[in-house]
């Protein structure tokens, strides 16, 4: 059984016997049909490996690293030197140091390639122009730029620094535009911004971020997981069902992938809304854990690398996200906001959430219609609400009673209400005041989803919608919430909530053999209360 990759360098795949999910047909078509390309993806989605693969093909050819891949007997390009610039390696806090580091990378490349008489300069745009001027007639290079927007995203809340870096990066791209010395160029990043000239009118770079033909180039498809990771799928099924891997059927593997998909699939980078991919980082970590832990556990790996990105955390320092909007399964935004974000300073928050991987396409891209976004899967939804919890709540409130048992799963009604009051007491009331039932419901849902509870946010039955419904294997908890800031109204509100639960039979749909706990409760939003003051377990 081959090892799961722990590297973004294609040469390590051969040396360490790593699984390589063959994406070389996409790369062949990319390099054949375009001269300069850009594609955006969230962090740790495979952008760097893609660039490294392109660079290796141009610089070293197919032997020995691409034996057995689609491209092996088809690649016939000449070899070219590769200038690979990773903006992750450069300063995001000191513009002068950023310039020095970028110029140094160009200098080292020129020296390695023995390109003589490159005039020195402290400005990257001038320095790379001098490099081109010093190259011989007909001499060409391949230019790869990874995470081009690193310095911009790091300064989303610092207008002065953002503008200085923006101008520097804009001028750099202006200097490489149309240069005949560039055989091929590929640029990656998280964001797609018009204010750095890379995508502005007249740019010669093709933005392929949502092109149908390349929408599966980065990320794993279901068929790719079945083909390249079949041994790991069988191992997972064997641990879960206590049977040998040779007894695992194709149907077993399909069911296993179905559950993987619920957690890690459905990112869409396809303007036609047809192709969807799994998170490469999450899949690799999940399957690797099966081997190391000898059991199956669907962990939330996205949060480890995407949960606290500087882009979103910095943005949230100066912006309050629309929590009620994020709780819905579909968020509509104008097409132009999605297709043409100008600057990180004034970007539509939902576009930013999409570019960082917290939302994804849920519709095709039609210039005559709105774009629909939503959470891709359970893992990223949990990561999103863990992130929001850091903003909304002033301290962490444990969801457990004893050991690792959820309060809602095994606690009494009194325990559940006590937990909710502790959560509500931790709110940042100045930023997120609770002044109606809708806000109350949304904030409790943020907490529960962020703690990995199976919360049915839009759980409807034929008679209406319950406020909060949480599922566990052996229990279902339903809450009907009422709000008041007048003490004398509390009892009437509680009676209304109880009657609503009884009449609308909340929680009975598809209940199975679960225990059903129905709770009517009243939150008093008065400044001297701000807690659930009355509650009652509804007897069936």
Automatic annotation (TrEMBL):
Listed Pfam families: AAA-ATPase_like, PDDEXK_9
* Alphabetized InterPro entries for the sequence: AAA-ATPase-like_dom, PDDEXK_9
Question: Where is each AAA-ATPase-like domain found?
Answer: 11-199
Source species, domain of life: Bacteria
Report what the protein is called: PD-(D/E)XK nuclease superfamily protein
């Amino acid at each position: 059984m081959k090892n799961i990759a722990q590297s973004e360098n294609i040469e390590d795949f051969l040396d360490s016997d790593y699984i390589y999910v063959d994406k070389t047909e996409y790369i062949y078509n990319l390099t054949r049909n375009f001269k300069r390309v850009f594609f955006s993806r969230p962090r740790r989605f495979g952008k760097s490996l893609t660039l490294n693969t392109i660079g290796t093909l141009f610089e070293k050819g197919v032997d020995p690293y691409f034996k057995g891949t689609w491209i092996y007997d088809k690649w016939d390009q000449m070899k070219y030197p590769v200038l690979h610039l990773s903006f992750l390696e450069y300063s995001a806090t000191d513009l002068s140091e950023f310039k020095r580091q970028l110029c140094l990378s160009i200098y080292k490349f020129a020296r390695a390639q023995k390109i003589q008489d490159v005039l020195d300069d402290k400005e990257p745009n001038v320095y790379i122009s001098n490099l081109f001027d010093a190259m011989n007639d007909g001499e060409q290079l391949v230019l790869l730029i990874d995470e081009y927007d690193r310095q911009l995203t790091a300064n989303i809340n610092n207008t002065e620094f953002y503008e200085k870096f923006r101008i520097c990066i804009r001028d750099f791209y202006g200097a490489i535009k149309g240069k005949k010395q560039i055989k091929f160029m590929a640029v990656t990043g998280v964001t797609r911004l018009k204010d750095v000239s890379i995508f502005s009118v007249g740019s010669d770079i093709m933005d392929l971020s949502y092109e149908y033909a390349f929408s599966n180039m980065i990320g794993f498809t279901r068929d790719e997981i079945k083909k390249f990771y079949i041994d790991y799928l069988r191992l997972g099924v064997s641990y879960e069902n206590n049977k040998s891997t040779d007894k695992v059927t194709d149907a077993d593997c399909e069911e296993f992938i179905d559950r993987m998909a619920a957690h890690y699939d459905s990112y869409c980078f396809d303007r036609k809304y047809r192709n969807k991919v799994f998170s490469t980082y999450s899949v690799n970590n999940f399957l690797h854990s099966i081997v190391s832990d000898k059991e199956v556990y669907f962990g939330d790996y996205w949060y480890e690398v995407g949960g606290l990105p500087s882009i979103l955390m910095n943005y949230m320092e100066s912006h309050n996200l629309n929590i009620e909007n994020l709780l819905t399964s579909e968020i509509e935004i104008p097409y132009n906001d999605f297709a043409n974000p100008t600057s990180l300073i004034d970007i539509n928050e939902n576009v930013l959430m999409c570019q960082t991987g917290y939302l994804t396409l849920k519709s095709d891209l039609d210039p005559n219609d709105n774009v629909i976004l939503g959470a891709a899967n359970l893992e990223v939804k949990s990561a999103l609400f863990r992130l929001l919890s850091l903003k909304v709540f002033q301290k962490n409130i444990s969801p457990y009673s004893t050991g690792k048992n959820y309060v809602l799963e095994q606690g009494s009604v009194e325990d559940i209400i006590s937990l909710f009051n502790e959560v509500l007491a931790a709110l940042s009331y100045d930023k997120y005041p609770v002044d109606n039932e809708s806000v109350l419901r949304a904030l409790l849902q943020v907490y529960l989803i962020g703690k990995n509870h199976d919360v049915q946010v839009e759980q409807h039955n034929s008679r209406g919608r319950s406020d909060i419904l949480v599922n566990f294997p052996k229990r279902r908890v339903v809450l009907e919430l009422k709000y008041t800031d007048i003490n004398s109204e509390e009892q009437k509100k509680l009676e209304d909530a109880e009657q609503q639960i009884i009449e609308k039979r909340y929680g009975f749909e598809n209940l199975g053999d679960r225990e059903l706990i129905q709770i009517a409760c009243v939150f008093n939003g008065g400044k001297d209360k701000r807690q659930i003051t009355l509650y009652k377990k509804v007897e069936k």
